[in-house]
Amino acid sequence: QAPDSFPPLRNEAAVRVLRGRMKGIQGHCNSCYMDAALFSLFSCTSALDSMLFKPFPLCDRNVQSILRDEIVNPLRKTGFVRARSVMHLREQLTEKGQCSSFTNAEKDPEEFLNLIMHQILGIEPLFKLQSEGQEQDCYCYQIFMDKQEDLVVPDVQQLVEHSFLSSDLKLVEIPSCFIIQMPRFGKEYKMFSKIIPSLELDITDLLLDSPRECCVCGDVATLECS
Q1: Side by side, which strands form the sheet with 170-171?
Q2: What sign for the dihedral angle of Cα 218, 220, 223, 226?
Q3: E-assigned strands of the chain?
Q4: CA 117, 196, 214: angle at the middle one, nearest 5?
Q5: pTM above threshold 0.85
Q6: Which residue has the higher pLDDT, 28 or 209?
Q7: Phi and psi dihedrals of 195, rounded to 5?
């Protein structure tokens, strides 16, 4: 029997279903890193819906069905996911990842995404980064940057550009999906009190060997100055 499928929430439907008390993914026992990641990946976008249905070569179908039937479908249908459903997923991740702390400890979102996408579902990397001539396959990009005094309440566009510049990074090609982890997580320290979401992300200057306009003459640029 084909599983039920609910499309991602859009516009007025997203507001109607997701706003209010007892909405979203219920937190329990340091699950916030996973709750936030799952909500971001699936509530209002279908970019990664292949994770829910596609039979990848290494795919663990049990984890896939838990993710689809107990988390994503209820989230899109009613706007609410019980903590018990997320704990069910965490128990499976603990079993598959040989890491006993997935059920009780706060983890880095990147660790969770790499485990479920690469080791458990076996999907291809979402994008490639190049630094100093070396290419790296990635599922998630975590923003690293020094504190910028002029960035008090930055937007995502500014943070990504600053991070790529300071780390001398380029995207090898346009990513199929670009998951970005903000520098605003963990219990101890948050670099910014607020970050404004950029509804669109201009990656023109982040792409390797992408034709760009010269800021002096307007022709196609042949040199790039950081």
Answers
A1: 134-138, 127-131, 170-171
A2: positive
A3: 24-25, 80-81, 127-131, 134-138, 141-142, 170-171, 180-181
A4: 90
A5: yes
A6: 28
A7: -135, 130
> What's the rounded mean pLDDT across residues 149-172?
92
Contact 135, 171 (CB under 8 A): no
- Residue 102 — very low, low, confident or very high, per pLDDT cuts 50/70/90? confident
- Helix, strand, coil content of the chain in percent (nearest 5): 40, 10, 50
Cβ of 127: how many Cβ atoms within 10 Å?
19
- What amino acid occupies position 53? F
Give the residue, 97 or 155, on which the prediction is more confident. Answer: 155
| Whether residue 97 has pLDDT greater than 70 | no
Give CA–CA dist 206/4, Å, rounded: 39
Cα 50 to Cα 66: distance, rounded to the nearest angstrom: 14
Can you list the alpha helix ranges (DSSP code H) found in 1-49?
11-18, 32-42
How do strand 80-81 and strand 24-25 relate by DSSP bridges?
Answer: parallel
At residue 134, the 3 state secondary structure works out as strand
Token duo for residue 23: 């909405």
Distance of CA 168 to the CA centre of its chain: 21
* Cβ-contact 86, 28 below 8 angstroms: yes
